[in-house]
Amino acid sequence: MVELWLPYGKTEVVARIQAENLSKVVETKSSLGVKDSNAEIMRALDKPLESKGLEDIVGSGDKIAIVVDDATRATPNRLMLPPILDKLNLAGVEEEDITIIIGRGIHRSTKPNEFSALIGEDVKDKVKVVDHDCDANNLVEVGETSRGTKVLLNRTFIEADVKILTGDVGFHYYAGYSGGRKSILPAISGRNTIQHNHAFLLHPQSKTGNLDGNPVHLDMQEAAHMANVNFTLNVVLNSEKKIVRVFAGDLDKVFMHGVKLVDKMYKIPVEKPADIVLTSPGGYPLDIDLYQSYKAVDSALGVVKEGGVIILVAECLEGHGNEVFYKWMKEYKNIENVERRLKRKFLLGAHKAYYLFKALKNVKIFLVSTMPSFYAENIFRLRVANSVNLALQSAFKITGKNSKVLVLPHGSLTLPILKK
Hints:
Blueprint: E1 2-8, E2 11-17, E3 22-25, H1 37-46, H2 54-57, E4 64-69, H3 77-90, E5 98-103, H4 115-119, H5 121-126, E6 128-131, E7 139-144, E8 150-154, H6 155-158, E9 162-168, E10 171-172, E11 176-177, H7 191-198, H8 215-226, E12 231-237, E13 243-249, H9 251-266, E14 267-270, E15 274-279, H10 290-301, E16 304-313, H11 323-331, H12 335-344, H13 350-360, E17 364-368, H14 373-379, E18 383-384, H15 388-399, E19 405-408, E20 415-418
Parallel strand pairs: 3-19, 4-5, 4-9, 5-6, 9-12, 14-20, 15-16, 15-19, 16-17, 17-18
Antiparallel strand pairs: 1-2, 7-8, 10-11, 12-13
Helix pairs in contact: 1-3, 10-13, 11-13, 12-13
């Protein structure tokens, strides 16, 4: 018997699997976090990629806007912001001229008690902090992409003298990767801009770990260039959410350096598909709700046999996470109806229903979470188990006692790739 511990919220749960049934544990390649995060951030700031240093970009009297990730991301804003602010202060920028924008796209508003946790109490008390609102009047159109996306962005950011992006680079299931240009679109974009861009996710090249011919990514990139970003700071984290490497400077260069490192760390070869895939998004905040947790299912789909079982271990402390997602799962009965409706008019949140229906067409999905069984079963069409091991027992009854189990402890971070 093999015992495996999976991240679950802010804790862990144990799975017990017979050794003969265990196919593979898909772990990230060993990447230790840096010993001194502040030193690594300062190293990146002092040696920017194809860019002047911040101290050469800013000056006294400049209005500065800094975009940071919201509470659904593991980005260490608290570590990244103080060195940036120190650089700005040394260059003569006054704290009252700095605004931090929480780039939440279409995600829920940042809760009052989350601001300090996101950016740190000291930073929150020093500078102005605002929550981006994709439906607000505080938007300005900066152009239209070659794919017809009208780019409306946060006015505070656009009107700033110096524009800075922060974030982390990792896999994303239709943009290819997070980080870089995503801090503009969707992070500080208007709803219609986000909606038009995300409609491209129906394209076959809009998939995890792919940028080539990916219209979601290419459209985001165009929009980001229209914003005239002055400086970018991105991190790559290991599975323990520790900083492995920091990249600073030019937006595109920073992003691509991050992409190369993510591929090296998180693209893991797998010999053959398994009957059962047991996956966790990677704990809080990656499993904060079902909407976010789906990313682990997406990773599992590439390495599970057709007709097999995926067991999703995700706390989902905030439930389903999106009302449109909920309504579409409640209203529609199959993938064909959802796809037909999306092609007529794309709607944010509905795309998650499209992905879940698409997954359920090929596999059975068990959910181990705090979500009430009624919603998980009757709305989202998931099978429910009260523990990982009960889910495994049920899965073996479906696939057979000799079934092979592949385990993805960090499903939102890891991309298992079947060997050809």
